[in-house]
Write a structure and sequence with these properties.
Growth Hormone, Chain: A, about 75% helix, about 0% strand
Amino acid sequence: MYSAVYAALICFLTYACIYAFRKPFTVGIYENRPSYFGIAFKNLLVIAQVLGYTASKIFGVKFIAELKRVGRGKLILILVLMSWIPLLLFPLVPPPLGIICLFLNGLPLGITWGIIFSFVEGRKATDFIGAALAVSFIVSSGVVKSIGKWLGVTFNLSEMWVPFYTGLLFFIPLILLVYGLEKIPAPTNEEVALKSERLPMTKMERVHFFKNFMPGLISFIFIYVVLTLFRDLRDNFAADIWSNLGYANSANVFTNTELPIAIIVLILIASMILIKNNKAVFFISQYIVLVGFIIVGVSTFLFQHNFINGFNWMLLVGLGLYMGYIPFNSILFDRMIATFRLKGNVGFLMYLMDSFGYFASVLVIVVKGAAHIQLNWAQFYANGVFYFSIVGFIVSTFCIVYYIGKIKKLNL
C-alpha cells in the first residue's frame, strides 16, 4: 500500500507541475490584442495550443504505443523544457508570432501524460494511482490558474508574462518529482498475472486490436470527443465563463469549484481498487460515465431555468464531465485490457481517443470565432453541453450493450 500511495502522489504532483506550463495563459482576457481572420486573439491562442497538443496526440498513438521503458524521466524534462522556451518568447515577439509560440508550447506537452502513465499501468493499484493522476487534471488546472492570476496581481505582471513565470515557479519541483517517478518499482509477477503484461505494440498489433473492437472503440471515441470538447472548452475559457456569470474579479473561484470535484471523483474512481474482478470494474466505469452525462444534462437544465445559480451549475457540470472523462484516463482501458487479456497498453488507446477529442475542440472554437456567433461563453457553453449530454447518454448506453455482447460471445 505504501508503494501505491507513493506512486499516486508522485504521478499527481508531476502532472500538476506540467499543467503549469500549459494552462496559465488562459487566465488572460487579451482584450487589447488584435484579432485575425475575424477570430479574437485569445481564441487564436487556444486554437494554436490545442493544435500543437492535437498534433502531439496523433504522433503519440505510435510513439506511446511503442514506448520503451528506458530514459522516460529525461524525456519528460526535455519535452517540458521545449514547451517552456516558447513561453519566454511569447511576450517578446509581435502578436502574430505569439500565436505560433502557443502552438510550439502545446506540441511537446501532449506526449507527457502517456510517459507518466506508463510507469504505473497494469498494477493492482492502477485504479487508485490512475485516479490520482487523472484528478490532477481537475485540481491542477484550477490551482495553476489561481497561481497565475496571483502572480499577475501581486507582481503587476503583464498577462503575456504570466505563463512564463508560472512555469519558472514549477520547474525545479518538476525535476525532483521526475526523479521520484524513476524510483517507482516495476510490476510484480502477481500484478502481471492479475492485469496482464503491458508491452509495446507494433503497427500490425494496433490495427488488429482496433478491428477486433471496432464498434465499441468508435463509440468510445465519440463519447470521449464529447467529454474532451466540453471539458477543454470549460478549461480554456473558464475565465470568460466566470466573467459572464459575475465572478470576474475572483481568483479563488477556479479552485473552489475544482477541488470538491477532484475529491468526489478521486474517492469514486480510487474505490475501484477494492474490486479485483476486472470485468465488473470495466462495466462499472461505463456506468459512471453514463451517470456523468445525466448530471451534466440535469444541472444545465436547472441552471437555464434559474433553479440553481452559476456557481452551483459550474460545480455540477464539472462533476458530471469529469465523472465521464476520468474513467477513460484511469480505469476503463486498464481494466478492458485485463478483462479481454489483450496484448497492448493503455497509452495506445488513450492517444487514439485524444487525437479525435482535441481536434474537435479546435473545430468548435474556430467555427464559433469565424462565424461571429454573438453569444457569451456561459450561454454558448450551457446550450452546447445540454444537447450533447443527451447524445452522450445514448451512445454510452450502446457501448454497455455492445461490450455485454462481446463478453458473451467470447465466453469470458
